[in-house]
Design a protein that fits this description.
about 450 residues, mainly alpha, elongated, disordered N terminus
Length: about 450
Amino acid sequence: MEKILPILLIILFFFVPVSGAEENQSVDIITLDELLKENDYVLSLDPQNLTALEYRALIFYNEEKYPEAINASEQCLKVDPTCSFAWHIIGSSWGYLNQPDKAVEAFQKVVALNPNDPVQYNVQGVALSRTGKFSEAIQAFQKATTLDPGYAAAWNNMGVTYYNMKQYDNAQTAFDRAILLKPDEPKFYANKGYVLLQKDDYSGALSMAKTARTMDLTCVPSWFVSGEAQYHNRNWKEAFYSFDGGFNALAKNEIWYYQGAKNTRITKDMQPMDAYYIALASNVRFTGIWERTTVIKYKIKRYQDTLDLYDQILAITPDYGEGWKKKGDSAIKLERIESARDAYKRALEFLPNDPEVLSSYGYTTGLLGDYLEAMKYINKALEIEPGYARGYLYKGLIYSFYGQREDALSTLSKGLEFGDEKPALFEALANVQFKNGDTLGGVVSTVRSLLGF
């Protein structure tokens, strides 16, 4: 199960500790150029003024001009190689530029210069975690929490790292400690919810999600934790509304949203869903929430919504075979047979030996008038998977469509020997029986289609 990964919370805490970053944000009435001119003037009087150089780095950092912030910080280091502030700006900037290895190098310098500062170990741990050096990250978080046992953010980040190591008991312990220290932080509860999902404790995960949302309705991860739990419990509508709530909450948050191997920052300058599409383009195969949403829409018979979602996904990643297959399934439900056939045909390019795609393509082709092509593909599906009940269903329906009722009856009966698709097989069998004048048989098959056996 792919999900909104809890590494989000690591990143959220990643950049907070830059000294003075929040207090020195430029106000709206002062432009970047004006700040730089003032800074230029101070530096013209004393080019070695470390405070002015640090301030210049901070100006660029606050304006999200990270390459310029790095360059300005390097000027600080020429004056004082031990300038911890400059190394911190460099590390944070490389983090925003999605260069975690370079961030790690910078934060190692910060730790070396501040060996008794728990904040620096926490930041180092985050950087190490982002590079996949989980064991080293845990050591950094342990050092931070040893220096300051009440450091809730470090406990949370430790839990996130344990989660990525699949050490769920350790992760839960760390999240419990973070919650105990800071019980008003909704994201800690959402993170614990992710752990409980992995431990199959769905009621516990729902409880954590509810607690987080009670504190903050815009806590995005809590909505997705709830959605996953409801999805597992087969509560399709509740799951749909949870995921939908998460997408709506995205519009009210500035967060880092993790998909596959790519980070996309959702800012005021980019519409949340546009940023989400960019993340999808990175790796649609691991976008668990998209898949959950489309499946749920299909389950609650919102077939047009499902079709629209797959159109969006396939516009971004046209080589996504599973997406073409599921688009075809939705189109069939809407009786858009040509659209379904075309979708299955595209799916065959990527899934040439998938019995579902082969039989579905054959079925739609047959409904559009090509009997021989239909049987060719359906028979190939049944050769690959002789026990594929839907293959027999589609073959029986095509026989019936072309008036071959006896062949249809025998094929549908054969399909009933296998466990799946019995309601649909009985329904198709009843239709053929009624056409053949077998009213009693048709009534019995109709009842059995309703009962499912």
